[in-house]
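call fold(seq) -> tokens
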Amino acid sequence: MTAHNEAKYEDIAKTVIMPGDPLRAKYIAEHYLEDYRLVNKIRAMYAYTGKYKGKEVTIMGSGMGIASMGIYCYELFHFYDVEQIIRIGTCGSHDKEIKVLDVILAEKSYSLTNFETLFNDDDIDVVYSDDELNKKILEVASKKEIPLHYGQVVTSDVFDVYVDKEKFLKHMPKEKYLAVEMESYALFYLAKLLHKKASCLLTCVDSMYDKTVISAKERETALDQMIELALDSIS
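ret:
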């Protein structure tokens, strides 16, 4: 047990699916898992362990931002010996090709954060997800006929909706990137550092170029598609 996770060592599966929102973890457990149990509720960061198609899996929220993801994924990797984490989240598109409700698989994440410097005296702008895990997700997506965009994303320390876009965009990478989110850099960095596996699936919920307004039901359905893709990739 840690200061942030009351689960016993044996309560956490070797594979973890991590939405940002702990209530989404609750939703996934209730709708997709069999024989699930609540194993953490400290700070209302709910974690549930159960079975999906016979395979044990833990669903746990990460919270928002690099700092929160950094705490939870480090503890899962280091103290609970978790082998792989798939983040499932939402993002905003900065690419004309990415439409609202499209799904992205992050090949790598760029960030201006100092997280890696403070954590291990590193200076790294780009970190990669796991090739083997990504290959499995791409195979499952193909079988399920789910189109995936695969490429670089940006992990931001600020919610870009609230800041001056011109100032924000000055600090983005020169090479092509698909979308902006707030957690994957920490997950990928710590997975590499600790010799674990990590991937990140994202559903686009807003775009600089696509002004489509989606209903709550449409959003839920789109997220269900991403959730099922993540779960089927570990079963």
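Helices lie at 22-32, 66-78, 115-120, 131-143, 165-169, 184-193, 216-232.
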